Amino acid sequence: MGVDIKIEHLTKSFGKQLIWGDVSLTVPAGEICVMLGPSGTGKSVLLKTLIGLLKPDEGSVIIEGTDLVSCSEKDLYEIRKLFGVLFQDGAMFGSMNLYDNVAFPLREHTKKSESQIRDIVMEKMDLVGLIGAEDKLPGEISGGMRKRAGLARALVLDPEIVLFDEPDSGLDPVRTAFLNQLIVDLNAQIDATFLIVTHDINTSRTVPDNIGLLYHKHLAMFGPREMLLSSEEPVVRQFLNAQRVGPIGMSEEKDADQLAAEKDMDLPPLPPIPLQLEPSNGIPRRSQRPPGEWCRTNGVTPPPGSFLPDSVLAGGVKA
């Protein structure tokens, strides 16, 4: 079972440059959450702040009753053991083979014997589909395999929280689809709390239980997947549906003239909300909600065609 992360009034600046301010949200225990935002909005900075690599100017990050911002270095060291982190490029040690890369946290943080370490390492490598590649060096494998090796290392201490920093970065759509399925399957198996930073819209629309959007130095919205995918909030609608019409421009914000020119333009209809990706065994995850539950509970009419299988939509059947 994962643990929740309570983020309260978090503010971070670098010098005079405000990255984001007054960010408050709770990442629910055991659920998959995605954090989105245009480039440069501080998504990776948020992840580094959550594990104590960066200190915020204000606010709190509370995990199991401990505030990571104000706690002692000793307490921070212990809390970090709850985390596993998949970095953008895998962050593998180039001179170590994959086995030793995955074993490194066990050798560093535990007193387990080498036979115990081998059992754990091989279990995690099997989870991510890397059995048979343990003797390869990071430079001898593809980017997708490095990501999976990095994920095995992130899981090796059985973390309660797993952070993913753009796991789809540098991967083609097919490998991204395989990685998305792997993330869902892992969440079903280990029931940990997952927080994913990504730019991939398909990932955001199909994988998480909850979505957050950082924009213009604040948290624009955070909540259940269906809430954001049915939202008419301009920046949320524009980003999650990859549209040009809206407040986001080539920089971060469009100027007043651009927005005025778009004022009377007809927005394209919201696309259907897809079914959420299920574990490969077909058994729903503990945190997975029935399709359309949030919309029904909150009296929201989803876009036509929502929650239909891809095969039905491809055949032209409409809701």
UniProtKB/TrEMBL annotation:
Tell me the ranges covered by the ABC transporter domain, including all copies: 5-241
InterPro entries in the cross-refs: AAA+_ATPase, ABC_transporter-like_ATP-bd, ABC_transporter-like_CS, P-loop_NTPase
Q: What is this protein called?
A: Phospholipid/cholesterol/gamma-HCH transport system ATP-binding protein
Instruction: Enumerate the Pfam families for this protein.
Output: ABC_tran
Q: Where is region (Disordered) located?
A: 264-319
Q: Origin organism of this chain? A: Nocardioides terrae
Alphabetized UniProt keyword annotations: ATP-binding, Nucleotide-binding, Transport
Positions of transmembrane segments: none
SMART domains according to UniProt:
AAA
Gene Ontology MF terms in the entry: ATP binding; ATP hydrolysis activity
